[in-house]
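In this supplementary section we document a worked example of the pipeline. Step one takes a protein sequence of length 140 as its only input; no multiple sequence alignment statistics are reported here. Step two produces a three-dimensional model, which step three serialises into structure tokens for compact storage. The input and output of this example are shown verbatim.
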Amino acid sequence: MLSWMMEELHSQGKTVEQIAECLKDVPLHPKTISAIQSAHDLGCDLKVVSDANQFYIETILKHHGLYRCFSEVITNPTSVDGEGRLKIFPYHDMTSFHGCNLCPPNLCKVSQHPFCYFLKLKEITDLNAQVVLWSDDEFL
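The serialised model returned by step three reads:
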């Protein structure tokens, strides 16, 4: 769906730079920024695991000065084609089973990573962190 939206924006003459400028308006709560910076300063290995996409996440994190805090971003890859169109690709082959019954195929990153950290947004003001661990294909 998001890839289709990028196609539509491109057909209306919107550029990748204009999309990036809009993403810079995405707010992050000051306490979220502080928590990320504090965890990084304490030596925590922070990773983003998301069903969003590389371009959106990198743009938002860089704008808020947080990109350097993360050792890895595990999400849907993106590229800009020769016509300047933002292309978003699925992290997984969506036509085959990804081996996990706990989450949607596009969100699950367990097959490549033995651990995942998920941030679950229940409401705009209620951000809960949940640690999910897998060992030998078992949910711990």
